[in-house]
Amino acid sequence: MIELLAQAAASGEDAIAASEALSSGFAYGLAAIGPGIGIGYLVGQAVTAMARQPEAAGMVRTTMFLGIAFTEALALIGFVVFILLKFA
Amino acid sequence: MPTLALEFPPIENIVEWPAFLFEGTPFAFNKIALGYLIAVVATLAIFMLAGRRRALVPKGVQNVAEASVEFVQKGIIEQAIGHGGTPFAPFLTALFFFVLFNNMLEVVPGWQMPGNARMAMPIFLGVLVLLLFVAVGVRSQGPGTYLKNSLFPPGLPKGLYVLVTPIELISTFLVRPFSLAVRLFANMLAGHILLISFAVLSAALWVASWQAIFLPLPFAMLVALTGFEILVALLQAYIFTILTAVYIGGALHPEH
Questions:
Q1: DSSP code per residue over B181-245
Q2: CB contact (8 A) between residue B242 and residue A65
Q3: pLDDT tens across B15-36, in order?
Q4: Which residues have CB under 8 Å from A49's CB, separation 6+?
């Protein structure tokens, strides 16, 4: 009986570890989708703007980096969640 | 867990360092703290060496200092703060170089530990920037007007303030320093782990038997990623500085 209980407890711990590993992978994978699309769209539009108006390239580039910084933050928070789930 | 007969080090081994001075006291001193000290000394050294002998035609370290000050003035302050931003040039230049040197320790051979891959320095800098832009706002607009301008953005219908004020409160005073810190921290930690992954893979293939023929693949990736991480270190220092400038500019010139 005790052996069975210990076995169940051990397999429960395994299940928790497995779901932690799985969900940490999903956490980062899902968090990367939106910012991936967002940064791609943002940089594409910035390149279009620079090609149309090369004299405004400096201003567009600065604004582009700012936009990337804000968009990227979501993916990075996903990465932090991954680290916390996996290792903390 | 071994994959390909390869043992990835646990996270404690790659970001935590034992203290080697004053252990057990609040002043415990380890590799990370030494890295901060190196970044401070390097920043000071550049500008003190450049400022000691001011030649009319700059050369050497004076060139670096003048070019960087001009970059901060033209590329960051004029773009993000506008007029009235010149007094912040020393702070922003020092911030840029401090963050840059801290990041660059990631690719220095034999050191390879970015100080900003620990949360301590990013969150400290984030809180410092928060205190700075609140102080700038209070000084240039007065405490009441600054709070009113930042919590009740003008030009909205009265009823919307129920929704907008809590959002503005959280996004200005909590999310700004937090996202500044997390952006820097997560970028440097991700880069650090990325480099370690390929280094561990290369090391494991180096001692493997027939699998050693795959060694050039991860090693080429490691070399390429080291170059990429130098770019990331520069970019993150730039983004940290320009976001600080944007926040100071927002406190200095309220929207009408």
A1: HHHHHHHHHHHHHHHHHHHHHHHHHHS-SGGGGGTHHHHHHHHHHHHHHHHHHHHHHHHHHHHHH
A2: yes
A3: 888 888 887 788 888 889 999 9
A4: A56, A60
Q: Which residue of B has its CA nearest to A80?
A: B186
Average pLDDT over residues A38-63: 92
Give the mean model confidence (pLDDT) for residues B163-179.
91
Is residue A21 within 8 angstroms of chain B, CB to CB? no
Query: Is the pTM value of this prediction over 0.80?
Result: yes
User: Residue B3's beta-bridge partner residues?
Assistant: B6
Query: Is A32 near chain B, with CB under 8 Å?
Result: no
Closest CA to A23 of A73, A80, A81, A71: A81
Question: ipTM of the predicted structure?
Answer: 0.76
How many CB atoms sit inside 10 A of residue B252's CB? 19
> Phi and psi of B2, rounded to 5°?
-80, 125
SS3 A70: helix
Are the beta carbons of B196 and B14 closer than 8 angstroms?
yes
Amino acid A6 reads: A
Nearest by CB to A69, from B10, B185, B243: name it. Answer: B243
Q: Which letter does DSSP use for residue B117 in this model? A: G
B37, B98 in Cβ contact below 8 A? no
User: Can you tell me the distance from the alpha carbon of B163 to that of B49, in angstroms, rounded to the nearest whole number?
Assistant: 53
Cβ–Cβ < 8 Å for B208, B2: no
Task: Determine the Cα–Cα distance for residues B75 and B246; give it in Å rounded to an integer.
Answer: 12
Tell me which residue has tokens 């200095």.
B252
Partner-chain contact B183 A72, CB within 8 Å: yes
Question: What letter does residue B8 receive in the DSSP assignment?
Answer: P
